[in-house]
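## retry 2 of 3
previous attempt timed out at serialization; input unchanged, resubmitting
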Amino acid sequence: MTHLFTHINQDGKANMVDVTDKNTTQRQAIAQAYVEMKAETLALILNGQHHKGDVFATARIAGIMAAKKTSDIIPLCHPLALTKVEVELVAEPEFNRVRIQSLCKLSGKTGVEMEALTAASVAALTIYDMCKAIQKDMVITQVKLLEKTGGKSGHFTSQ
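## retry succeeded, writing output
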């Protein structure tokens, strides 16, 4: 089976996909990321003792803002009128990590996978930024698309 990259034209050059003739559909994407850290770092966050303030609130807002700016930082993404962005952060002390899950929605001609991935990634980067003075060896891991609905390609769920 031949797979063609949609962002490469017949001359092999990168270009933005033309979505003019695509149908407008309800679209949704859910992405995740994890930030692994020492138990002591996670405890500071959860106990509200971090000297920079509320880490989860800051990461949540950063993720939401990033989703809205995705087309500004990823060159071939279309600017989208997102109708919903959620970023949820859940501490998993049994694994010494924070799980981040983002949800993006819209009614449009192109998907919101990149926006959901950007939201989760930037929320994770924000946690790292706020905690790097305490711990520099945190690990951002498992950034991936969990699910997407809508559009010509239909429903996708990560295995």
